[in-house]
Amino acid sequence: MSEEQGKYEKTFQRLQLFQGLVHSGCGMSMWCLSNTGEVLYTTSSYEKELKMFLQISGCLKYALEEARDFVRPFIMSDSLGLIWAGEYIFSTGGTERLLIIMGPLFFTEFSVKIIKNELQAMDFSLMLQRSCLNILQKVPVLAMTMVHQYVQMMHYAIMKENILPGQFHYQISEAKERRVTAARQNVKLEHETHFNEYVKEYSREQIILQCIKDGNLNYSNIVAPEIRAAIPDSYETGQPLRESKNVVLIFTALCSRAAVEGGLSVKTAKEMEVSYIRQIENTRTVTELMKLKYTMMEDFVEGVHRFKNGPEISLHIRECYDYIKAHFMEPLDLRKIAKKIGYTEYYLTRKFQKEMGISLLDCIRETRLEYAKVWLITTDKSIQEISEQLQFGTRNYFSRIFKEKEGMTPASYRERARIVGKENEVTECG
Amino acid sequence: MRLKENVDYVLFLEAIKSCSKNVFFQTIEGDCLNLKSVLAQYLFSAISSNTEFMEKSNIVCECQEDYECLKDFISLIE
C-alpha cells in the first residue's frame, strides 16, 4: 500500500469512528458523496428524502460548485432552517475529491414546531403532515456552539488539524427568508433558559469586547474557549433568523462602543456600525449572518489595532505590544521578548516607555488586570484560578497588586459587582 | 396528468421553475400543493418515497402551455 493510500485509509478510519460517535451521540447523519453529488454512503434513514432537501435548497449545488475548492469546512442552511456542514477529502492519489456532509440539524426546537403549525394551519391531510414531520422530528436540534464543535471534530478527523469556527466558510444564499405565518401563540414554551446560561453568554461577550478594546489580533484564540461555553441565541419567538439578527444587531452596537473605548474615533466606529447594521438586515440565512458576525468582530478589532499602532509608534514596539496582548495568559519573559524583537532588554524597556507612555512591565500587568476584572465579574473562576491563569503567581501577589490598582481586593471587587447586580435586579423588578 | 415512472423529482421541480404559472400536485388524500412554493417542494420531497402515493397523484398546470415544459416528466394522456 502506498503512503498516500495509507493516509487515505487512516482518514476514513477516523471518519468512520467520528460518524459513529455523532450518530450515537445525537442521531446526526453523515454523508459521503462523489464530486458529482452521487451518494456513496450515508448513515441517514431518509436518504432519498433528505438528499432531495439538500438539492432543492441549493445547498448541494453550493457544496459541489462554490465550495469545491475549499480546504476548510463550510456551513450551509436553507429556508426551513435546516443546517448542513461539509468538507472535502482527497481520494487515493489525490486525483478526486469526496464530499463529506454532516446533517441536517436544527439550531432550535422551535423550527419543527413552526413547520408543524403551518402544516396544520394549511389543513393538509394527516398522511402528508406525518410524512414530513416523521423526517423533521428525527433531525437533531443542536446549539450553534455544539455544531461548531462537531464541525471542528469533523475537520480534525479529515485533516488532523485544529480549526477555529471563525475559519469556517459560511454559505451566502440567495434563498429568501421564509415568512413564518404560524399562530405562534399556540406554541407553548417548554424550555426556560437558566440564569447561569445568560451569565456564560455575558462572560463570552465581555471577553470579546475586551479584545476589541485592546485591538487584540489574537482574539480568536482568546475567545475560543468562551465561545465553546456559550449558549445559542434563542428566545423562542418563532422567528429564528429575526431573533438572531436582533442579537447580532445589539452585539454590533456593543462592539462599536468597545471600539470607541479602545480609541477608535466615534465617527469611524459609528460608520462601521451603520454599515454592518445594514448588512445584517440584508442577510437571508443564519449562516450568512454568522459569517457577517465574524467579519464584523474582526473589523472592529483591526480598526482599534490600527489606531493603537499609529505611525508615531515604531514597528518593533508595535510588535512587542501585540505580543503582550496575544500572550498575556502565558509567562512573559522580558529577556525573551527583547531577543524576539532584536533589542537588548534595557533598550527595549526604555524605547517602550518612551513610545507607549507606560513601562513594559506595567503594560503586561495592566493587560492582565483588565482581563482579571472581566473574569471576576463574569465567571465563577476562583481567585486562585484567575491568579494562576493570568500568571500572577500567587493569590497574595495578585490580591496585592489588584488592590493597588483598584483600591480593593479581588474578592471585594467581585462581591461589590454582585451587590450592584442584585440591586439592579431589584430596581428592574420594582 | 400523472407523473411518469422513474422520474427524477429534483429535475421535475427544477423544470417547474420555468413554468409561467402555478403548478399543483393533487394527492388522493385531497391535498393540493403549489409546487412553486418552497414549503410545498419540501412536502413533495418528503412523500417522494411513497410510490403508490406519487403514482396516484395528479399534476395540474394553471397555464395550458406549461404542460409542454413538463412533457418529459408527466404523461400527457390522462
Layout of SSEs?
The complex is a heterodimer of chains A (430) and B (78).
Chain A lengths: L2 H24 L3 E4 L5 E4 L4 H10 L2 H6 L9 E4 L5 E8 L6 E9 L4 H12 L4 H11 L7 H16 L9 E2 L24 H20 L4 H10 L11 H22 L4 H17 L3 H23 L6 H13 L6 H8 L3 H12 L3 H19 L4 H7 L5 H12 L3 H20 L1
Parallel strand pairs in A: 3-6
Antiparallel strand pairs in A: 1-2, 1-5, 3-4, 4-5
Helix pairs in contact in A: 1-6, 7-8, 7-9, 7-11, 7-15, 9-10, 9-11, 10-11, 16-17
Chain B lengths: L1 E2 L5 H8 L6 E4 L5 E3 L3 H9 L4 H6 L1 E4 L4 H4 L4 E2 L3
Antiparallel strand pairs in B: 1-5, 2-3, 2-4
Stated plainly, the CATH topology of the domain at 6-171 in chain A is called Beta-Lactamase
**Radius of gyration computed on alpha carbons of chain A:** 25 Å
Number of strands of chain B: 5
Mean pLDDT of chain B: 88
> Can you tell me the residue ranges of chain A where pLDDT is under 50 for at least 5 consecutive residues?
174-196, 228-232
Can you characterise this structure?
The complex is a heterodimer of chains A (430) and B (78). The longest helix of chain A has 24 residues, at 3-26. Chain A starts with a helix and ends with a helix. Residues 174-196 and 228-232 of chain A have low confidence and may be disordered. With 430 residues, chain A is an alpha+beta fold. Helices cover 61% and strands 7% of the residues of chain A. Among the domains of chain A are: 6-171, 2-Layer Sandwich (Beta-Lactamase); 195-308, no CATH class. Chain A is globular, with a radius of gyration of 25 Å. In chain A, strand 4 and strand 5 form a beta hairpin. With 78 residues, chain B is an alpha+beta fold. Chain B has one domain (2-75). Chain B is 35% helix and 19% strand. Chain B has helices spanning 9-16, 38-46, 51-56, 66-69, and strands at residues 2-3, 23-26, 32-34, 58-61, 74-75. In chain B, the strands form two sheets. Chain B has a three-stranded antiparallel β-sheet. Chain B has a two-stranded antiparallel ribbon with strand order 1-5. The longest helix of chain B has 9 residues, at 38-46. The radius of gyration of chain B is 11 Å and the shape is globular. The chains are: A alpha+beta (430), B alpha+beta (78). The A-B interface holds A 48-49, 52-53, 55-56, 79-80, 115, 118-119, 124-125, 127-128, 131-132, 135, 175, 178 and B 9-10, 13, 27, 29-31, 38-39, 41-43, 45-50, 53.
